[in-house]
Specification:
Layout: H1 5-9, E1 12-19, H2 30-45, E2 54-59, H3 68-73, E3 80-83, H4 90-103, E4 109-116, H5 141-146, H6 152-167, H7 171-185, H8 199-204, E5 207-209, E6 212-213, E7 223-231, H9 232-235, E8 243-251, H10 269-280, E9 289-291, H11 297-307, H12 315-320, H13 337-340, H14 347-358, E10 372-378, E11 383-390
Parallel strand pairs: 2-3, 2-4, 9-10
Antiparallel strand pairs: 1-7, 1-8, 4-7, 5-6, 8-11, 10-11
Helix pairs in contact: 7-11, 10-11
Length: 395
């Protein structure tokens, strides 16, 4: 994006947020969740389906939501529509695209939606707890797949181990992130896991892929989330206070996970974060609240390093200090994140960022929330997106 990217993004604002029931919600399809989330987001903004002229769709691992959603909702004469997918980085990337479309006049009211329903009722006939991605990789990555390294957890375990071996990061330091986020989740009525945990609980939870314990890993959820963007001028007159986009950036490093690469040590956050902050005209010290993509505790830790909240290799000591927890200097993942609240890809951090920027967090609301930073991460650290949000117009 050009140097005037902040001015372009500033012409749009997030005006509505819709969150369905999430978690082990059975008997509903991903398209049903998507439609529900969109209706909730529009009602939140005080708008209707007739106001929508742009739609950006992101489906999850079930792959069931597509362009037919527009017809199912009865949307007519859309001027801007696309299906987008860079995994967990999509929500923020699509929000950036929606803002650009509004700023350039391609659309005036754009809905960004993500929905997924990978969980099926285990008590139903032929039911299974998780319906994941079909098939597997081809080419060289298929070698690891054939050897049993299936799914994301094995790859993130490798990345976490490399960080530990290089910088001395400990499992207990990863655990500090899980404990802090569970503290936030105890104050979030939407959170799936609300019972407090300790470092001992973390250490005694079973390994999923060593060194990652069960409490290092995010959950799997059914549900949907949508945000509505419109022009900043229009948003000021709608039902909820607008949330302004001060800056946004993407980067997709495409690490090869071979000897000599930076895989596990440096992520796309190292470019996406500083770029978004530079566009917003802020530095790390200006950030009041962080909402980080936390598919694993390691992911949150390495993102904090790459964003510059602490020096490279010092993330373990940083999170162990209590800085992320309620009362800490850098409130992070204030809804409980994907570890404790709900997992809907990049919509999890984005939705909580909007809630905090609006001041709607209830018991967990952070008093100072003028600058909220949110991140998205996808693949095995392959894709990254960042945005800076605020309830105030950027001067």
């Amino acid at each position: 994006m050009t140097d005037n990217g902040a001015e372009i993004l500033g012409r749009a604002a997030i005006a509505g947020l819709g969150i369905t029931d999430t978690g082990k919600v059975y008997g509903r399809s991903a398209p049903d969740f998507a439609a529900d989330a969109i209706r909730r987001a529009l009602a939140d903004a005080g708008l209707t389906l007739g106001d929508v002229d742009g739609l950006l769709i992101n489906n999850g691992v079930s792959g069931d939501v597509d362009f037919r959603l527009a017809n199912e909702l009865g949307l007519r004469d859309l001027r801007f529509m696309s299906m987008q997918n860079v995994a967990g980085a999509t929500a923020i990337a699509s929000t950036q695209h929606a803002a650009m479309a509004i700023a350039t006049g391609l659309a005036s009211c754009v809905v960004v939606v993500h929905a997924d329903a990978p969980l099926t009722d285990p008590n139903a006939p032929s039911g299974s707890i998780y319906r994941g991605r079909r098939g597997g990789p081809t080419g060289f990555p298929a070698v690891a797949y054939a050897g049993g390294a299936r799914g994301a957890t094995g790859g993130y375990a490798l990345a976490a181990r490399r960080h530990m071996d290089t910088y001395g990061t400990t499992s207990e330091q990863f655990g500090a992130i899980a404990v802090a986020q569970r503290q936030w989740a105890t104050m979030n009525p939407r959170a799936r896991f609300r019972e407090p945990i300790t470092i001992e609980d973390h250490q005694h939870s079973r390994y999923v892929a060593e060194p990652l314990h069960l409490l290092d890993c995010c959950m799997v959820s059914n549900g949907g989330i949508a945000v509505v963007l419109t022009t900043a001028d229009r948003a000021r007159d709608l039902a909820k206070p607008p949330v302004y986009i001060w800056g946004a950036a993407q980067t997709h490093p495409g690490y090869q996970r071979t000897r000599g690469s930076e895989f596990g040590l440096v992520t796309g956050a190292a470019r996406s974060g500083p770029a978004a902050m530079a566009m917003a005209g802020i530095k790390t010290g200006d950030v009041d609240v962080c909402e980080l993509y936390d598919c694993y505790t390691y992911t949150a830790l390495v993102t904090l390093e790459d964003y510059g909240f602490c020096a490279k290799g010092e993330g373990g000591a940083f999170v162990e200090s209590g800085v992320l927890a309620p009362g800490g200097a850098l409130p992070t993942n204030t809804g409980g994140g994907q570890l404790s609240s709900y997992y809907l890809w990049g919509m999890t951090p984005l939705s909580e960022a909007v809630i905090q920027a609006r001041g709607e967090g209830g018991e967990r609301q952070v008093a100072k929330h003028d600058v909220v930073l949110a991140s998205g991460n996808g693949g095995l650290l392959d894709y990254h997106s960042t945005c800076v949000l605020s309830p105030e117009v950027r001067s």
